[in-house]
Amino acid sequence: MEIRTETLVKRKCSTCTKRSNSFFCYLPQNAFDQLGSVLIHHAYPQGSTLFLEGQKANGVYLLCSGRTKLLTNSEDGKALIVRIAEPGEVLGLAACVSGAPYEASAQVIESCEVNFIRREDLLTLFQNESSIAMNALRELSRNFHHAHSQVCSLGLSASAADKLARLLLEWCEANSDGSHSVRFKMGYTHEEIAEMIGSSRETVTRILKSFSNRGLISLARSEMHVPDSKKLALSIGTRSM
Q: Model's pTM, two decimal places?
């Protein structure tokens, strides 16, 4: 059974101060007005669920603030985090376009605000506004490339240490200013990281300690420091733990 705790918030995109570089935050004025006319704004607390894997897709969720994890479960109940959605992302888009059920569950890990668009309204927007349809296509393409990278990372990595190193390198790339020395906020628990690489919390804790002992990373409170991302990359494929 789906558990959803939400608060309806009356707010217009035109007055929003949190616009990101999302494909849907900046549109031609006419398209933006049409999009705004069908949005239903909600606020969700941490721990709530937006939708469940296998549930009929009744709409998409435009994430305005906060973070949400998309995860899928195996038959034995093991969870794998497909990705962590950040503000500006659109959740449930592929399922709504194809008419298939949601391919993953969306759980709120940081209190968030979302704009919901009913599937029938979304399809009407696609027919009437080519700019919205093209932006949806770009969003789907970006999600495909992310999924492809994740499959390659998991499939080509021989060990949990390699998978974790590749994940850290992705975060380095996202937070780099051009330097090989990268600092970023570590906003995930060891359990969540384990779910991202298909491992266990204990294994992640052990590998992070090993990386720290080898000087590949340092972690102070919630800040991760990778002194040399090239050195971390070169560690992939080695047996040293």
A: 0.69
